[in-house]
Structures are given as C-alpha cells and as structure tokens.
Amino acid sequence: MTDIKTPLEMLYHWEQNAGNQIYLRQPINGVLKNFTWSDVGSQARKIAARLRAMELEPGSRICIFSKNCAEWFITDLGIMLAGHVSVPIFPTAGKETVEYVLQHADVKLLFAGKFDAANQSFSYIPKSVPTVVFPYHDLSGTYSWQEYLDIEPIADDPQRELDDLMTIIYTSGSTGQPKGVMHSFSTICWAAQNSLHELSVNNEDRLMSYLPLAHITERVIIELSSFYSGAQISFVESLDSFTRDVSAHRPTLFVSVPRLWTKFQMGVLAKMPQKKLDVLLKIPFLSSVIRKKITSALGIDQSRAWASGSAPLAPATIHWFAKLGVNISEGWGMTENAAFGTAQLPFRHDKVGTIGKAYGGVDIRLSDEGEIQVKAPCNMLGYYLEPEKTAETFTEDGYLRTGDKGEIDAEGYVRITGRLKEIFKTSKGKYVVPAPIEAKILENTNVEQVCVTGNNLPQPIALMVLSEEAAKHSEEELTESFTATLKHVNATLESHMRLDHLLVLKEEWSIENELLTPTLKVKRHVLEERFKDLIEKSHDAKVVFVS
Asked: Region 238-261: what's the mean pLDDT?
C-alpha cells in the first residue's frame, strides 16, 4: 500500500519548497488572479485561526456551498488545519436539499460562494447558520471573506490522523434524500494519491476545475490530487466564459461528463456539417490541420489524456472524437469508493463501451445477480448517522455493493450493462435494461438526452430531447431520422425490449427544472412521475412530438 500523506503534509511541503510557484488561477471579470502556494497556505492558516477562535468542538461540520473557485480549495485546507470536517453542498442545490444537509450534518458554519443565481441560492440558507461570504457577490452574511481573514494566521503545522473523518459528501440524490458518505483522510487520500500513478499527473500538469467540487470525482481527481502532484489549477469564471478560460489554461489532462462532450460535438457540427468534416478528414495534408483547428478552438489541443465519467458516453461519440485525435477514456467510480474504481487507460479502440480495468489496489467481482462489487482501501467508512443503510451497502466479506450490473471480459475490462434499480419490468413480466438501449439511441446526433422507460407497459418507450443541431431540421426530416433510428435500434433487441414509440419532448432536462442531478444524470424517477400520463398514453405514431 502507498504510504499515505495528508493534504496538510503536502501543503507544508509546497509552502517550503515551492512557495512562490503559482498554484491556483482564478479569472475575475476576465482578469486572472494568481495564488502561489504561499498565498494559499497563508489564507488557509487565517481560516484555521478564525475557526480556532470560535472554539467549536473538534470535528465540527463546516459547510462549503459554492461553485468552484480558489477560495473553495483554501477553505477546505483551513477546515482541515482547524481539525474540523468539511461538508460540501452543490451550488445548484435547491432549498429543501440545503436545509436537509445543514440540519442532518448539524453544520456550525457555512462558507457561501460563487453562484449563478446568488440571491436565490443564498436565500436557501437558514438565518440560524453563521455564514462567511466569498468575495464574488454583494451578499450580506455574518462575515465577509475579508473580515473573516482579518486575523494573524496560525504559526504551527497541525497534523491530522489518517483515521480522522475528513469530509461528509452528500450524494446528489437521483433517488430520495441524499445520504452523507463519510470519508476519512485514509480512504479519500489513498484514492487521490494513487490516482497520480494511474493518470501520470505531475507538477508540470495543468488542470481545469469546473465540474462541481461537491462531487467526489472533482474532489479526488482534481482538488486532492493536485495537493500531491503540485499541478496548476485554473477555474472557470462562468458558463459564458468556459471556452475562453479553457483555451487560456490549455489543460494537459481534461476530464468531463457525457453531456458536455456531446455539447462540444454539437458545437463543432454547428460550424462544420458532418459530411464536410468527413471529407476534410480524409484529405492527408488537410486532416491534421482540421484536427488541430477544432481541438485548439475547444482549448484541449495540449491535453495528453481526456476522460469521461458520471454516466455512459455513447460509443458513437467516443469514435467521433477519436477521429479528431481526442481519445476519450471512460472511467467509473462512485462517492462510496472515492471515485476510484476503473479506467480505460491507456485508451484502446477495441475496448470502447467498457469502463476499463480496475485500478491497482481495487478488487472487483460480480455477484450471482451480476452486480459489480468492489473492495479497496478507498471504500467509505459508511453513511453518516445511518448504520442500517451502511450495513445494507456492504457484503459480509466487506465488498461494496455498487448497484451497477455488469460484465467482466477475459482481460479484466468491465462493461456496465445497467443499474439494478433502473431495470424495470413490462406488463408481460419481462425485464428491460435501459442503459444499452439509450446508448444506441444517442448515436443519432439529433438526440441530446434520452430516457428509456415503460414499467408495466406492454413495450418500453423512449423519452427524448432534441440537440441544438436538430433545431435546424423540419419536423418531417426529424421524423424520418428518428423512424430510421427506431428501426435500427429495435433490430438489435430481443422482442420484449423493442421500443413501441419515441416521445420527443420540447423542454430540455436541466438541474433547474429538477430533471437532472448536479452531476447531470437523469433523475429517472422524477421524469417518470412528471410525464406519467404521457408515458402511459397509447400512441399510433412511432415518433410523437410533444408540444
């Protein structure tokens, strides 16, 4: 096993050996504000001094409710220095979730940050919870960031035990109330430290931090791993400045999620139709120029590795990017195992559609029902205040029940075939696994979002949302395209899995309308409830556009 160091030990190392080296780059109104390791250490130590002065009980829960920013990293370190436990909340969380997490974790202080809808998000915080407001909005909390940091930094170098509880990460709640996943310094830092070897990250790397830090993947692969590698981190100012900020930083490792990879693809096709792109990529002296032009425009031309996680990425999308020289490796992990499960590294064209092989130190097996089960030093301690749910999640011999159904080939590559909870039964008593069918539908670039459903229906159906590119086409053209897709997909399926019809919905599924989780996964149960009447209604047409 790797000799685990805490993030605090690494902070002391970088303060001493690379104090003047730029670590964090924060764009503010289009201008970059740089933070050296010394800057980060000094501000984190001031937070620790303030927290000590509050005389809270050791191990008190301190919340960070904010979009990614330099202050997020600094605050996290300050909480560790003071001997407390960090509790992140997604910046897009609604009132009910915010109130539930703050009450359930008995949060003593909340750092409120950078938001897209600042006044609205800030209004969700109960008045009884003291707040420190990051320096991005004109919000009136208990303390401003400047006020809270107006103190002499602690001068000592506190140490934390590996068995200490470091953080409670509340799951994004695709079903029911979020559960508080407990990770110690040992469990989560083992994953972060080992990810350096798996991803070959070092202090010359440049990483972007834009996926929510309240989610396990960003926390481990970007924030925590940067403490060990010394890699430089840059943030995104806003959704509108995303391309500008990525292009300015030119990340060497780029991690994203299926929804964003698809949007990148649609953005390219909006400027260059597929037929023209195919022709240009076949011309030897032009193909390399075109690839460079496209990847430079996206800001990922200097990346040596590209990754996707959180949900399956359609194989057709992976092959599309591969033609541009962007080989996207899919990986898999969950909050409960610190996002450290498998990855397809190095990328292999013949293994597209798999989530790769187990990382070193991770033992993966299949149960009799085909459930993927994992055992590793990064498995969680359990769910906060929920011993019964914790017991249900582990097997008697200590394997984590993931809830994912899968297959493992002779080389150890794992393929997820669906979620056990998402498998449904038609009125004919036959089981349907939606994920593989959804992946086939997404090969049609006119489709951006899809959900296959049909519990107790004679045959399953698919709900779909159009891509931006599809808006250029007439309903007649789209009907022809989707009819061909339906025929193609059904030809690959057993009779009980064949789709009866496709429902094309007008409204995009988003975090705001509560149809996506903060990590952009479809909230299947919410979608099925909201469109219950439409789903259960019989339709004569095979492609139905819903106004």
From this structure: 93
Average pLDDT over residues 399-405: 95
| CA dist., res. 221 & res. 233, Å (int) | 12
299: left (phi over 0), alpha (psi -120 to 50) or beta: left
The residue ranges of every structural domain in the chain are 7-232, 253-301+304-419, 424-545
Question: What is the enclosing helix (H) or strand (E) of 544?
Answer: strand 543-545
Domain range 253-301+304-419, CATH architecture:
3-Layer(aba) Sandwich (3.40)
Residue where the block lists tokens 């900020």:
245
Question: Against a cut of 0.85, is the pTM above it?
Answer: yes
Quick: pLDDT tens for 199-245. 889 999 999 999 999 999 999 999 999 999 999 999 999 989 999 99
Provide the phi-psi class of 398: left if phi over 0, else alpha when psi is between -120 and 50, else beta: left
Q: From CA 221, how far away is CA 209, in angstroms rounded?
A: 10
pLDDT digits (tens, 9 = 90+) for 258-286: 889 988 998 999 899 999 999 999 998 89
Per the listing, tokens 């089960």 go with 373
Cα(80)–Cα(60) distance, integer angstroms:
11
Dihedral (CA of 443, 449, 455, 459) sign = negative
Query: Do the domains at 7-232 and 424-545 have one common CATH topology?
Result: no
Is a pLDDT exceeding 80 seen at residue 175?
A: no
Q: What 3-state class would DSSP assign to 448?
A: strand
* Dihedral in degrees, nearest 10, Cα atoms 466, 467, 471, 476: -50
**Token pair recorded at residue 314:** 């359609």
Q: Order of strands across the sheet with 363-366?
A: 363-366, 371-375, 400-408, 414-419
- Give CA–CA dist 475/479, Å, rounded: 6
Cα-based angle 222, 442, 531 (whole degrees, multiple of 5)? 95
Say which CATH class 424-545 falls into.
alpha beta
CA–CA gap between residue 122 and residue 281 (Å, rounded)? 49
pLDDT of 348-369, one tens digit each?
Answer: 999 999 999 999 999 999 999 9
Q: Judge residue 80's burial from the number of C-beta atoms within 10 Å of its C-beta, 0-12 exposed, 13-18 middle, 19 or more buried.
A: buried
7-232: CATH topology is Rossmann fold (3.40.50)
Distance CA 196, CA 529 (A): 42
Return the structure tokens found at 393. 């999640």
